[in-house]
Amino acid sequence: MSSIFHVRLRNFELQAERLMDASLRTRPVAIISSQQQDGTIVAASQEARDEGLYLGMKLSLARKMSHSALLLPYNRSLYSRLNTYIYKAVSTFTPIAEPADYGQFYLDMTGMKHLYPSYQQAGYSVAKIVADKTSLNSAVGISINKLVSRISTAVVPEKIYEINFGEESRFLSPLNSPVLPSVHIPQVKKIVEFLYLNRIRDIQRITQNQREAAVIFGRNYKQVSRETKGQDTSAVRPPIMRDHITEQVVIPRDTNDQSILRSIIKTMSEHIAFQLRKRQQISKRVKLEIHYTDGLRSARYGSVHNNHDNSVVEACYRLFDLANYRRNRVRTIIIDASKFVHFADQVSLFETTVKKNQALSKALDIIRRKHGANSIHSASALGNIPKQNSCWIQKFDKVLDQSSPVWIS
């Protein structure tokens, strides 16, 4: 019999912010999707809820409702790093673990019962390791499938809750209909609202008669029927590890200075190009992603057709110009290369610009392989950074781990 754990860190974003800043633990705090007027609240503390704020509230209304609540931008970089750290911790319990949304994980504990007195005890062990490593609170739902386990952590206040085999339908019966994924399908949602099927038990009564249910829910009948009975055949799937070359820079001081940003892009691009030459490959899919200071993201996709520095840098410049369409300051830049194909460096009888660039890149590679990838950079990577930003340059050098860099023209 399968046993699936669902680990949920409720209000994960809020817990992460309070972990980083202890002064927020008693303050009314709300996490917002964007600083724009159409931004919404994605997480709120109990203190903020007491002041009338709620999830999904527009930012413009939130500012009118409460003047004391602290509205924090969505820090995706922080949440992603913390989520990865927790995933590694819970993965020690089973080789089959799947990260879902931020702060949510599935663990396939089938066959692990002989290692613990009970699955309840195993759930306490999972919650304990999360608390020991991060000081964050978590809840664990236990059932025979992912659907019921996930619903249990969303609606049951207990820290550890187990639904025994055969009790899935009875557990779901008194719950509100929207906890079922199928109820959010537009066609099903209209029927549920029109017939006032507020509880899952109401839908269960309809699905008992297959003919009537097929007429009411149409082609969605089978999915609705399975979910109301607590049936789910989806497997816990560990994340697929794809072949990527990724460079990421979290800028020490958020900025929208184009000369600084383009200098960062050039340094990151040169690192990507160096890795491509080591592999003797080019990338058919390059993603450049920008994270703004207000939490919004922008990304563009392209490819590189040569692996010398100038070719990769120009491709990344082009993607950056397309992605950076806002005036807001930039916090993080990510360049991700994938879908690699072999690159044949053909010999040419004539000295072309491409051949010169390839020769220069190969000469630099000799130094980089001997002294490290950050040992040498082109002077143009500094761009036109004004003198008053010299302290920022030193910080940027630390971010890229540049010890005694050599600049060339």
Would you give an account of this structure?
With 409 residues, this protein is of the alpha+beta class. It folds into three domains: 1-92 and 101-162, Reverse transcriptase/Diguanylate cyclase domain (Alpha-Beta Plaits, 2-Layer Sandwich); 170-228; 245-408, 2-Layer Sandwich (Dna Ligase, domain 1), CATH 3.30.1490. It is 41% helix and 20% strand. The chain has helices spanning 12-20, 46-50, 59-65, 76-90, 119-134, 146-155, 168-172, 186-194, 200-207, 210-217, 221-228, 258-279, 309-323, 353-371, 390-399, and strands at 4-8, 29-32, 41-44, 70-73, 97-99, 104-108, 139-143, 160-162, 245-255, 281-292, 297-302, 330-342, 376-378, 406-408. A five-stranded mixed beta sheet has the order 5-6-1-7-8, with helices on both faces. Helix 9 (200-207) packs across helix 11 (221-228), helix 10 crosses helix 11 and helix 12 packs across helix 13 (309-323).
Helix-strand blueprint:
Layout lengths: L3 E5 L3 H9 L8 E4 L8 E4 L1 H5 L8 H7 L4 E4 L2 H15 L6 E3 L4 E5 L10 H16 L4 E5 L2 H10 L4 E3 L5 H5 L13 H9 L5 H8 L2 H8 L3 H8 L16 E11 L2 H22 L1 E12 L4 E6 L6 H15 L6 E13 L10 H19 L4 E3 L11 H10 L6 E3 L1
Parallel strand pairs: 2-4, 7-8, 13-14
Antiparallel strand pairs: 1-6, 1-7, 2-3, 5-6, 9-12, 10-11, 10-12
